[in-house]
């Protein structure tokens, strides 16, 4: 074997354009944190569902990429996006169609084996699958029409609202909700009837925020895995028996997205599509609503928030200035925020790594502020 040939080939690679090393570090880091939590908290059982979901998700994703290629489910890149993204055109998409069901099956199996199965898990499973289906319809239309646009914004919001209302009716009828919102420390605010419209807004906002974040290889899957892990740890620390099943749900979701990340990091071999991103955001919002961790989710999901706010600012300022002075002004080079940094010349992997690091810092902050 010509070892010199392989060594020279390795040296010639631009490792800054490969997200595998940092993805492996992220996976190892979350595994180590889960081990520490399990060792120091008696009832914590994070490691087994985490490892299981990582392995199974990675296997299913590898198999799924082949299937997606066979049925020609490939990404269509929008013309107005960054020019560097045109090379991503043709990458298999709709990867979330494998990850979401697998994570839900594993979650419910773990819950049944640990006698922690609950109505909350049923509600979360419904919410995740329903939003996945909305994303699936959107992705399928985009692929069949061969354009980077599936459902209209209006249609998507209507479907998300209908599912959100069904979910809220479900948790109300089963008395799974708490209209007291926990903020700093143990301080609470009772929202009363205001809780329900706010809850619906959070479902729509979070699902669309993760959708906007899914614009760089490994960005949404990495950030999502970190936030799910943070929520799982917070719920374990609380020590409430009712929250253990939800903590298991969170860590299984984290593991599933980490397994997916192995193939979604740069250069991505598959994208999650709206099928995955909408389900991810809805799941995070659902967990927060059921476990009174809305404030924690707001802090932990700072990247999701920043991505959404950047779009709101960009569109709002552009339309306002165009109406007033006849010419639209752009605050950012392009929105969402990650595209702004891309056009500034920052490499995609560097943006993703920095956004992961920011998410980790804010997850730690949220846990310390609980």
Question: What tags apply to this protein structure?
Answer:
370 residues, mainly alpha, two-stranded antiparallel ribbon, 14 helices, 2 strands, 2% strand
Tell me about this structure:
This protein has one domain (19-75, 94-369). 70% of the residues lie in helices and 2% in strands. The protein has helices at 3-12, 20-40, 47-70, 96-113, 119-144, 153-173, 195-213, 219-238, 244-264, 273-291, 294-300, 302-325, 337-343, 348-369; strands at 180-182, 188-190. It has a two-stranded antiparallel sheet with strand order 1-2. It is globular and about 55 Å long. One of its GO terms (cellular component) is plasma membrane. One of its GO terms (molecular function) is phospho-N-acetylmuramoyl-pentapeptide-transferase activity. It is an enzyme of class 2 (transferase).
List the helices and strands and how they pair.
Elements: H1 3-12, H2 20-40, H3 47-70, H4 96-113, H5 119-144, H6 153-173, E1 180-182, E2 188-190, H7 195-213, H8 219-238, H9 244-264, H10 273-291, H11 294-300, H12 302-325, H13 337-343, H14 348-369
Antiparallel strand pairs: 1-2
Helix pairs in contact: 2-8, 2-9, 3-4, 3-9, 4-5, 4-9, 4-10, 5-6, 5-10, 6-7, 7-10, 7-12, 8-9, 8-10, 8-14, 10-11, 11-14
